[in-house]
Amino acid sequence: QAQLVESGGDLVQPGGSLRLSCAASESIFSYTVMAWYRQAPGKQRELVASMTAGGMPDYVDSVKGRFSISRNRAGNTLYLQMNSLKPEDTAVYYCTARRGSEYVGWGQGTQVTVSP
Q: CA 106: distance to chain centroid?
């Protein structure tokens, strides 16, 4: 099981920015895919952004052009840079790792609230 710890969530005004971090207990290059999900109150968890071991990013349409997924060179931290935040981005954000088709770990989540 992957040990993942998210941080960086906060209360921010619309139009603001945040950077989320996900610290992993082992090299994230060992996973097929690393991803960020989010879950808003009363809604299902949704995939926000992902990155393959080879570094290929992908985003849900609602965040394209505003969010950016990246990782550090050491390969132990995954990031999600979020710009031009909107109230509808309010959610708990989770980091996850996948090997093949199997999810091998989830973080505890970090709260992002976008409000005036």
A: 11
